[in-house]
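Q: Predict the assembly, please.
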Amino acid sequence: MAVAAAHAHEAPHPTSTGLDSRKMVFWAFLGSECMFFGSLIATYVVYRGRDTAGPHPHEILNIPFTSVSAFVLLMSSLTMVLALAAVQRGDLRGSRIWLAATALLGMTFIAGQCYEFTEFFYEGLKLQANLFGSTFFVLTGFHGTHVTVGVIWLWSLFAMAVRGRLPQSRALDVEICGLYWHFVDVVWVAIFTLVYLIQ
Amino acid sequence: MTAHEEPATSHGDRAAGEHAHPGAKEYLAIAAVLTVLTAIEVAVFYVPSMKPILVPTLLVLSTVKFYLVAMFYMHLKFDHRLFSWLFVVPMAIAAMVILALLKLFGHW
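A: Predicted assembly structure:
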């Protein structure tokens, strides 16, 4: 039975497109996520500059700090593809190292966001303070939640790799997690430009 | 493994329309380009003479970064075109909604 289960992973069921159903569904999910973040970004840019009370973006946003956070998240995309490449060639040690590196970089990003939110709170920017506060915290908060989910997913894969349960035949599991992680990264590319740099 | 060698996958043979993923060298090169583009973005933000063209410059730079990650790290360049459509069409709808709302709220 164990052998049959192992083969079930290696030979996906045939589909009319010849493409893996899980990957197809995940790309459709990422498409829906595009529209979700598109609506949040739209809300932010539409209400930008319409505050009657402060604090305003140029008074509070810390560009050097956020630039480092953006760089950290970009580099986590690199470690993610290296993790996938390691799993695809059956390099268990490499997959453990790169998965852990990606998760740690993600945690560094989240820690930076927690610090930033705390600073903003003490400087008077709260969810209900003004339009900027509401739209900023909802947009970046949802992004941070996505990063957190990604970190949990990465540590789960890491635990599987440690137990030797992440062979080459399960590379698609890592690839799908990677797609999610890179999506979170490209969303931050958009947020960093539209929220932080274009004030 | 060379840069363009076929990696092992859970599929065995790749599905029609899919090509081999890049190797570590290509991934590192993309990361270097992304780092340089991010540095340029931040530098442009601080240069006063760039103010008149700041917004288009930043939009172009972030679009290039988005493209590089989607094409090379998410493998859209190498995977079946159907995946690209599943991603690009909703993204285009989202972009059009943003532009329509900006117009509706009198931003341009």
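DSSP finds seven helices and no strands in chain A. The radius of gyration of chain A is 20 Å.
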